[in-house]
């Protein structure tokens, strides 16, 4: 059951690669067919080679066996009595018969006999048996005809008397240059077939008539390899060569001629005889028939090697190659798919990375613009604050100067002097404010420098002095002397002003408003915190604190409520975070342990805390 999804996914995949898979399968089939062909060709070549060896071996051993008896009949010529008997001269007939009988026993042949020049048997090894050859006229036998003509006779035939097949070897008996008779030795087939005791493939010997006279499969004996015509049959019947045996065709069906001496033939799948059962060979199906002449005889020998093992091997090779190549093809296909997926993934990844890069670039640009906008916003805030700050003294100046003129007209010089002194004080205060503005507008020096954070806190508080004086906020500063950060004093001040302004905004309705500012050094970092006891950050505010334009303040709200920052633009923290990040630091905001917001600036510390910012030197105006 758990395999089902796997199978389904495999099927889906296969369906997707269907046409290509079909191509792979077809190719695999073709490769299988080619492998079958190649294996069959190689197998047949090997089979032919083995067959040829067998043929040579079996033929040689059969020839040796025949040669053993070849000169045997000629030796009888050496016996005087034999010659006399053949020639019809007085001779001890009984002695010759016994001599032949003993000789026959010694050599293990079927019969040895002597004929006179007319073809009549005059002495025989089987003289004392009822079916003795003695007195028989065998002038028609080819071996007699050959020997009578002075040639050695070789003849295979079935005996007419005892119906016993045998190989007849004959030799002329010559006495004083005159042919007096013929000596014959009959060798049994079993004797010849003895040489086949060790053959590994069915073998048969075919005589000059195309009749199988020797065969390792018994039922093949006296069958013909080629059809006999009527005349031939008649001739054979006349000579009684096979003693009236039926001579059926063996039924070899030719399949393919491979060469002159090698042919593929099919053996009929006929029932085996009882004698065949003893034969160790398969005697049906496709076989490789190889033929060679037997020297010294008009016969030929044929070895039949079964082709079935070659075919089986070829099928095995074909199956192996087809399955193997299909497997390799499929693997290659899957690998290609896999590579394609990987490529697609890589492309997608590249595209994503490009998008991220582009987005980052846009964000950087946006951030730059925001910083710029933030600067403008701060200027706006400052202008609003400044206008507010300057309006009051200006109104007072107007009133005072008007009063002073009246005092002078009335001659109240003391009161006029008093007024003029107050006017001087107001002008001084206004001068201080514009001076402060000038200092705020001072360009940052760019490269980070060692900055004493305590001093920057003092400057920021001074900038907010007027607002702090108007409210009842208690400000506590805990700045350590070694809190010297590597940054830009003006920009850090801008950040602190922003944090303090936010704190003051948050404390507008707080019962006992208080702000605690702390700066401390921790090895290579300086940590500055600004904490208030206002309402703290809401969940949404905490999540979106540094998001540009996130604000909870009413836009454009001014002096009416104590925000005094020109209303919430939602840019302050975003810009501040950017500035701190430029220093290589971080700005974070959370809620303090006693409620109220707690902002922390983390900055890289200056290596030598004893060398603080040399540029800014404004008195510390923190009111504790
Ligand atoms: P703005 O002050 O213009 O609203 P900021 O980025 O400075 O923009 O602040 C964003 C928001 O963060 C504020 O609107 C406010 O809701 C919240 N916030 C900042 N500081 C504090 C604080 N000390 N206490 C409570 N809320 C704060």
* Uncertain runs: 555-567, 613-624
CATH class bucket of the largest domain: Alpha Beta
Largest sheet: 6 strands, antiparallel
Q: What topology, given as strand order, has the largest sheet?
A: 7-6-11-10-9-8
Principal-axes geometry comes out as rod-shaped
Please give the share of residues in helix. Answer: 40-55%
Query: What bound compounds does this protein have?
Result: adenosine-5'-diphosphate
CATH architectural grouping of the largest domain: 2-Layer Sandwich
Which fold name corresponds to the CATH topology of the largest domain? Answer: Heat Shock Protein 90
Structural class: alpha+beta
Distance between the termini: 78 Å
CATH superfamily of the largest domain: Histidine kinase-like ATPase, C-terminal domain
Q: What is the count of structural domains?
A: 4
* Number of helical stretches of at least 4 residues: 16
GO molecular function, one term: phosphorelay sensor kinase activity
Function: Member of the two-component regulatory system DctB/DctD involved in the transport of C4-dicarboxylates. DctB functions as a membrane-associated protein kinase that phosphorylates DctD in response to environmental signals.
EC number: 2.7.13.3
Protein name: C4-dicarboxylate transport sensor protein DctB
